[in-house]
UniProtKB/TrEMBL annotation:
Residues 717-738 are annotated as: Disordered. It comes from Georgenia soli. This is Glycogen debranching enzyme. SUPFAM superfamilies: Six-hairpin glycosidases. Residues 21-201 form the Putative glycogen debranching enzyme N-terminal domain. InterPro entries: 6-hairpin_glycosidase_sf, 6hp_glycosidase-like_sf, GDE_N_bis, MGH1-like_GH. GO terms for biological process: carbohydrate metabolic process. Residues 301-595 form the Mannosylglycerate hydrolase MGH1-like glycoside hydrolase domain. The lineage of its organism: Bacteria, Bacillati, Actinomycetota, Actinomycetes, Micrococcales.
């Protein structure tokens, strides 16, 4: 039986040269010539099932030699190769192009060009197979054959099928003029000198007798197909950026392109588009990953954040189920749609996460802060209150005021925070603590959730007494958190509390998330900031997940010494919030430097070796790429450099740019804001915003109402060092009310 959710470790990596195409939740992994070879992780995956495990092209029985791959869009690629030279010839004259389009199925246009002076005649064969492997098993290299498999074919098509647990899945392969057998499509090809031959092969998955809709009909220009229309719309909606640094501009464009490719939709709710966690193995809605991505991209596309919140709300827990770890009000960890996943867990939704539920409340609060559609946000309020009920009832099972986790069966995740590998939580000596575990960052999110609920009470319910109660609850929680988690002998916050309420005393990056939500009292912030930027934690490419002095440290591990871009973006935002501009800028520059060296795309994580040890970031072999929160990190880091902190319910926008001179002048046009658009420009340290609503005040700080008492009125001078800036309206804009 599939052990889907308790995989202890990181997913298998892809071989060098592998090419991944994605569209929605479907994806295809092949080699550089376009072949899908059996026995590994190659395949076409639709609804979490590998519907194609073999797809190999041969010319007279010989494989095609790869030349190049052209992939301007994430859903399509052109694989260019050549046939083997014939006997007595030094070079091949046969050029083979495979134009592949991936959606809920696949279309492949085969184009053969004869570059020689004689007619070429050969047998072109396409070998086809499907194991209908479950995605979880494929990524772990443990595919199990289940059910009754069948092969049917005639003159028109090949049908590969499987029946299991009253479900049938088929894949239909067809092509004009092909001779079809049990596992092969054959074409007798004759190409005149300097001539071209072409055909099109279509692959259509069929679930329980229903053929899945195809996105790329042969008679429709690609520019008019639904995937390309969606991409064009995204690019039209996304703000345009101009700055003098072409490397950073390329990184931000790559991030936007990757985020667009990771969008997934629900056919039953076409207006609600969410974001998947990452390619290739996590093309599904994940509570924590999708929420953090949405939070970091609110500035460029609030519709993605709103759609993510709505999708998670639709699957919010309503019952107690120990197998799936569902509980009333709990936000899911992961949604899957494969038949095998349903068998493993009794459903396609798994709820084993401690952080997604308070993060969900924070996300809804940020939607209001950034001016998302009030009617759609208001519809989420019942889900917000159910989420907070989960926090205080099921999340805090022992009533000590903190949210803990412990899996309810041996199928669940052992660790249910963002460091969810089996050894992701250790003490300073490297020991794995016994649960239930109360993570430091989860408590930070709870504090943020309480503040978010206060803002929602003001903005959507006009209920000041309720807002005051939630803020008072947040302050009581903050005091209790500091008393319990602070390690006075170490000068940092404990990574967690174990099942005996003893501090797990590792020095780890997690406490940076406490700066992000503001739960750290101001007098502690300097020590936290300095530890995060100490050589023990800071690698030069970012803050490590675990300090070098800790017993479990391993720079090549998944969670115990690696560098994660999203983690660093959150840390940078927290440092900036407390006024530690130099610290925040150092983290920001380190991560953006890594992106530049890596060609503009940040991976899910990097090894934690010191920058002085190796002159470039050392890749982690199994990292997802593109990955949602890694793609979102540069967007968030740009927001950190701009010091952008809106709070529309309190008619406030903070903008305090600390951009290095080489990034100026900077222009952002078409930023979504309060139902409209604004332009932001920074030149010589001066920021202008146009058009800003008359009832909004522009300042250089956070909202004084929401964050009163969050930071010292006068942070240490060293913390705010940097270029002097002035933030003003354009000359033709009148100042709003104070």
């Amino acid at each position: 039986m599939t052990q889907a959710w308790n995989f202890a470790g990181s997913p298998d990596g892809l071989a060098a040269g592998a090419v991944t195409l994605i569209e929605g939740s479907s994806f295809c992994i092949s080699d550089a010539v376009g072949d899908i070879s059996p026995g590994g992780v190659h395949g076409l995956f639709v609804r979490d099932t590998r519907v194609l495990s073999r797809w190999e092209l041969r010319v007279d029985g010989e494989p095609v030699e790869p030349l190049t791959v052209l992939a301007d869009e994430t859903y399509r690629a052109t694989y260019v190769g050549r046939g083997r030279p014939r006997a007595g010839l030094a070079d091949s004259t046969i050029l083979v192009e495979r134009h592949r389009f991936v959606s809920t199925g696949m279309r492949e246009d085969l184009v053969v060009r004869n570059l020689g002076r004689e007619t070429a005649a050969f047998l072109l064969t396409l070998h086809v197979g499907s194991d209908f492997g479950d995605l979880f098993e494929v990524k772990q290299g443990q595919v199990t054959s289940r059910g009754d498999h069948s092969i049917r074919y005639d003159d028109h098509e090949l049908r590969l099928g499987r029946r299991w647990q009253d479900h049938t899945r088929e894949v239909v392969v067809s092509a004009p003029d092909a001779r079809i057998s049990a596992d092969t499509l054959s074409f007798r090809v004759v190409v005149p000198p300097r001539g071209t031959w072409r055909t099109s092969v279509r692959l259509t998955p069929v679930d329980d007798g229903e053929a899945l809709p195809q996105a790329f009909p042969e008679d429709q220009p690609v520019e008019r197909t639904a995937p390309q229309v969606r991409r064009t719309a995204w690019r039209d909606e996304t703000p345009s950026l101009s700055l003098p640094d072409p490397v950073l501009a390329h990184t931000l464009r790559t991030s936007s392109r990757d985020l667009e490719s990771l969008r997934i939709d629900d056919p039953a709710h076409p207006d609600s588009v969410a974001v998947a966690a990452g390619a290739p193995w996590f093309m599904a809605l994940f509570g924590r990953d999708s929420i953090l991505t949405a939070l970091m991209t609110l500035a460029i596309n609030p519709s993605l954040a709103l759609g993510t919140a709505e999708a998670l709300a639709r699957h919010q827990g309503s019952a107690v189920d120990p197998v799936t770890e569902e509980q009333p009000g709990r936000i899911p960890h992961e949604l899957r749609f494969g038949v095998d996943a349903e068998d493993a867990l009794g459903g396609n939704v798994y709820y084993g996460t401690a952080d997604a539920t308070p993060l969900f409340v924070m996300l809804v609060g940020e939607l209001v802060r950034w001016g998302a559609d009030p009617s759609r946000v208001r519809a989420l309020l019942p889900h917000v209150d159910r989420a907070l009920e989960w926090v205080e009832r099921y999340g805090d099972g022992d009533g000590d005021g903190f949210v803990e986790y412990r899996r309810t069966t041996d199928r669940g995740l052992v660790n249910q925070g963002w460091k969810d590998s089996f050894d992701g939580v250790t003490d300073a000596d490297g020991r794995i603590p016994e649960g239930p575990i109360a993570l430091v960052e989860v408590q930070a999110y709870v504090y943020g959730a309480y503040l978010a609920r206060a803002l929602l009470a003001e903005a959507l319910e006009d209920d000041e007494p309720a807002a005051a109660r939630w803020r008072a609850r947040a302050e009581r929680f903050r005091q209790s958190f500091d008393e319990t988690f602070w390690l006075p002998g170490r000068g940092w916050y404990a990574l967690a509390l174990d099942g005996e309420k003893r501090p797990v005393d590792s020095l780890a990056s997690n406490m940076g998330h406490a700066l992000w939500t503001g739960v750290v009292p101001p007098h502690r912030a300097r020590q936290v900031a300095d530890h995060l930027l100490s050589p023990d934690l800071f690698s030069g490419w970012g803050v490590r997940t675990l300090a070098r002095s800790m017993g479990a440290y391993n720079p090549m591990s998944y969670h115990n010494g690696s560098v994660w871009p999203h983690d660093n973006a959150i840390i940078a935002a927290g440092l900036r919030r407390y006024g530690f501009v130099d610290h925040a800028t150092q983290v920001t520059r380190a991560v953006l430097d890594a992106a530049a060296v890596l060609g503009g795309r940040l991976p899910e994580l990097m090894c934690g070796f010191d920058r002085s040890e190796y002159g470039r970031p050392v890749p982690y072999p199994a990292a997802c790429s593109p990955q949602a929160w890694a793609s979102a990190a540069p967007v968030e880091l740009l927001r950190v450099l701009l010091g952008a902190e809106p709070c529309l319910p309190h008619h406030h926008v903070g903008l305090a740019p600390t951009l290095p001179a080489e990034l100026q002048p900077l222009s952002l046009r078409g930023l979504p804001f309060a139902g409209g658009e604004i332009d932001v420009e920074v030149h010589d340290g001066v920021a202008t915003v146009s058009p800003l609503p008359d009832d909004v005040t522009l300042s250089t700080g956070t909202c004084p109402h929401c964050y009163a008492g969050l930071v010292d009125d006068d942070p240490p001078a060293a913390a705010v060092a940097g270029p002097a800036t002035e933030t003003t309206r354009p000359a033709n804009e009148a100042a709003g009310p104070a």
